[in-house]
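On clarity, I found the account of how folds are encoded harder to follow than it need be. For illustration, here is how one protein appears when written out as sequence plus structure tokens.
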Amino acid sequence: MKAIHVNSTLPSVPYLGRLKGPDGYEVEDFELLTTLLSAAAWRRFNGPIKLYTDRVGEAYYRRLGMTELWDGGIDTDVLESLPASINHDVFWTAGRVAALRAETAPFVSLDTDLVVWEAIDTLITSDFMALHQEPLHHGVYRPRCELSTPTGYIWEQWDWEAVPCNASLTYYAADRLTETFHAKAMEFILGNPIRREAESRLPVHDVFVAQRLLPMCALRLGVRPAYFLDWPKPELNSETMADGERNRLVTHVWAYKDALKSDPDCRESFCRRCVARISSDYPELVGMLRHMPSIRRYLS
């Protein structure tokens, strides 16, 4: 099974684990390590993986000696072709929307902070799958009347009771879903007048596109979403697979990033554990770590 990573360097939102400072674009140490583990584990257990990024991202990974991670290649054309009018600080997954349309199904999309530790082909039970469901009552999922839309935009007859999905890990069996999703997402994104979210920590508009509009599109096409994990307690990370077994399939670092950013001891411990895992499971990549300035300190 082939997979894609997507990294656009344009968003400046703080929760991505990426920085824009005086030295230019960079990815935080913990995010670099999960990116490496994500690509390496996917290749070992599932198949080739491709990176969609822009020229800045490609140059950054090349400078760190990381480009060989993506044995499916690196594409910069798709993200570089996105309309310049897109507000990437609001719609920070616009790059992923474009990459999904560009890739040919079947394939998996996984975030760079998510690691799949096993083969997933036997877990595929639908033509569209996501990591897990999300509750509609979560504060990030706002009613239609609170969403900004482009001038002249007309809401279609979507199923507003459709359950949102966590899109950090998704599977697509056919191109018609990614084609439909791309068309409907861009209708909402392009020309949207919103400049910033009312609450900086609640990416309402991007999450509407990435995690609510996507399952709406699937249902419209007659595809019922299925999930890899069961998530009965939204305030906690899932420890249960959809079939009831204990989750040993994925590690998703998203909910842990605030702690990694704010607690130096937590960051130190996490990064050293990642380096130890890479050294034991993927010793051929240790040389790559030595070329990454922010990672060298964890090698001693």
